[in-house]
Amino acid sequence: MNNMPKVKIGIVAVSRDCFPESLSVSRREALVKAYKEKYGEEDIYECPVCIVESEIHMVQALEDIKKAGCNALAVYLGNFGPEISETLLAKHFDGPKMFVAAAEESGNNLLDGRGDAYCGMLNASYNLKLRNIKAYIPEYPVGTAQECADMIHEFVPIARAVKALSELKIISFGPRPLNFLACNAPIKPLYDLGIEIEENSELDLFEAFNNHKDDERIPSIIKEMEEELGQGNKKPEILAKLAQYELTLKDWVEEHRGYRKYVAIAGKCWPAFQTQFGFVPCYVNSRLTAQGIPVSCEVDIYGALSEFIGTAVSEDAVTLLDINNSVPADMYEEDIKGTFDYTQKDTFMGFHCGNTAKSKLSFCEMKYQKIMARTLPEEVTQGTLEGDITPGDITFFRLQSTADTKLRAYVAQGEVLPVATKSFGSIGVFAIPEMGRFYRHVLIEKNYPHHGAVAFGHFGKTLYEVFKYIGVDVGEIGFNQPKGMLYPTENPFS
Fold it and tell me: Which helix (H) or strand (E) element contains residue 285?
């Protein structure tokens, strides 16, 4: 992905001065060795200048990992650890950080070889809270060299997402369409997260689009599109305009990113877009999203933000879909019941007009937007990429602001079933365990809009930690609770 940071984690070992420093040295070396053997060495840097025992050591280590180009930090308690110096290190490091601690190795060495990092982690967490420092602490943060290596590797996508958000600009075009208050949310929390936003008129976009008429790069983009679509290229007459629009967006990104490294777009697509531009932008949205620049539909700013987070976590294309329609009873009986272990209420269809990357579709064709074509000439609604979404594991999620500018989120893991949708658009038959209850007591109860981001794979654990790290209260992170675990608003007699 071109629109994402490359994470490099500086591993700094710490030591309480009344404990043997050699414990932290040998344990750090074993940790780094275990990581490199299992995951390679691109993601990590071993700070060699010192074991941090004092504030002076903290400054030396901080300078060393900065010089090495580290943009994330792993504080490793090789023994009990110095609670002041280690948390000051986290305070002064500008980037995501984690704390992890060494387990004792052997019952035969519990005199001079005991490190007490199990105890030290408690003091570290207490001092982090005193200093209001955000840091990732794994579910069980004490482990062997191999286990700690696994924990640091799990931190990589969390760090990538957190770092990317700190350098993100969201570019939006136009207000949300009429009757679309569902995707309208305050932007104040974006600034709280350190995200910049540039809001533009769709008239500005239209002017830029017209200025790209006859751009010399258009033929090469058309050729790319033709090769990508193959036999699905059913609307070749519209490719020139789509290529012109793609170049418009890419140039806008480069000219308007300013001091920010990463960009996501909240795009306009109706009601006047089709009649003025002469097409719908769905296919272009899918192409940019596949290239690592998520583009949300219908000026959904938090949808674009959610897609960007999903891209950072998964390092793969994501999509944004309507939580759209129920699966008909006859379709459930014929294609799902008895074959898959889901009730009808566990299933639904996720749909959007045609914005999902080709790589995430079982088949695809360039078509027109059927819903819009009910009231407009078909030729101005061309530009959707239609097809059934490829079966496999998915994570449905969203980060959202409430009306009073509080952040909340949801995460639910499930799958796309290998069931023909018999419908139109970019669409799939989704199954999420206990979806019916989740739909009522999270999506409806917490006032989420109908747009949800989709990552292709199970990334619930990582997304949950990202949301915690950026400040979403754990009580405001919804998930599809299993049977027997009641939601606060669920009727216990139902």
Answer: helix 282-290
Q: What is the 3 state secondary structure string of 103-120? A: CCCCCCCCCCCCCCHHHH
| Alpha helices (H) along 318-431 | 329-335
Beta bridge partner(s), residue 451 = 322
Radius of gyration of the chain (CA): 25
- State the pTM of this model: 0.95
What are the pLDDT digits (tens) for 258-316? 999 999 999 988 888 889 999 999 999 999 999 999 999 889 999 999 999 999 999 99
Task: For residue range 409-448, list pLDDT tens digits in order.
Answer: 999 999 999 999 999 999 999 999 999 999 999 999 999 9
Angle at 450 between CA 317 and CA 287, to 5 degrees: 25
What are the contacts of 247-256 at 24+ separation with CB within 8 A?
247/212, 247/215, 247/217, 247/218, 247/221, 248/205, 248/208, 248/209, 248/211, 248/212, 249/284, 249/288, 249/295, 250/288, 251/208, 251/212, 252/171, 252/205, 252/208, 253/171, 253/293, 256/169, 256/171, 256/198
Region 168-172: what's the mean pLDDT? Answer: 97
Calculate mean pLDDT across residues 82-111.
94
